[in-house]
Amino acid sequence: MIQNQLFWLHIKKSAGISTRCLLQPYYTEVDRVKKPKTFIQATPEEYNDILNNYRVVLGEYQFKRCLFAKKFLYTETWDDLSSFAFSREPTDRCISMFYYLFWKNHNHLKNVMRSIQKSVKNKTWFQYNAAYAFDVFLDYVHEARLSDSIYHPLGNEFTTHTAPMWDDITDYEGNVLLKQVYRLDSLIEGINLTFEQCGIAKRLDGNDKPLNKNIRRKEYIPSKRQKKIIEDIYYKDFEVYENAWH
To answer: Of 4, 70, 222, 237, which sees the most CB atoms within 10 A?
Structure first.
């Protein structure tokens, strides 16, 4: 079946909603929220979307999803799959994580009230602005990378959404397990190339725009020190992005 010819690894905060939509009807979706399916309940066509659900815990393979897929889900067919992922520029992805997980965009009054509440709670009166919050966020990201628990410091959603891409696409020897990594900037072109490799006649055009772009997101510019922290945490992801197809 065509649905078993492609494998897409969803890197969090990299156009997941758009990609699921654009891959239809060749990517099978399952309930990922109310009653998330497990692999033992599923058909092979559903494995991909289950693996892309951060709520499904993989034990020692939690941040080695491609390796998990190769070893346990597609043991006979992995090398024949058109496997791919999209790489988002790491600093931009990190800022997106920040606004999604830690510093929601509200109207001006709500933003002021939130800053005051956090300032009082943390005894940092009026220092708790976006720049200060981004410092705190990066501290948590760093802490999550050092933690032995996927639930520390801020829960599984935070830990999985801030995880580096590199670990998920490689084996323990550092070999990239995907056939292709595209830059997120080339979303349409990447999906069209995958369709072509799978013998799928469908083609997307330039009018197929990402569906989940947050038009309210502010364009936060990290300081030099913050950029250095991002580069230290995601240094391998910067290499992936530089070498990705575009």
So the answer is: 237
**What are 90-96's contacts with CB under 8 Å, separation 24+?**
90/230, 90/231, 90/234, 90/237, 90/238, 90/241, 91/222, 91/227, 91/230, 93/11, 93/13, 93/14, 93/234, 93/237, 94/141, 94/162, 94/222, 94/230, 94/234, 95/220, 95/222, 96/13, 96/214, 96/217
Q: Residue ranges per domain, the chain? A: 2-88+165-214
What does pTM read for this prediction? 0.88
Query: Over its length of 246 residues, how does the chain's per-residue pLDDT go in tens digits?
Result: 445 599 999 999 999 999 999 999 999 999 999 988 899 999 999 999 999 999 999 999 999 999 999 999 999 999 999 999 999 999 999 999 999 999 876 555 565 565 566 566 655 554 568 898 999 999 999 999 999 999 999 999 999 999 999 999 999 999 999 999 999 999 999 999 999 999 999 999 977 665 555 555 567 999 999 999 999 999 999 999 999 999
**What is the 8-class DSSP label of residue 162?**
T
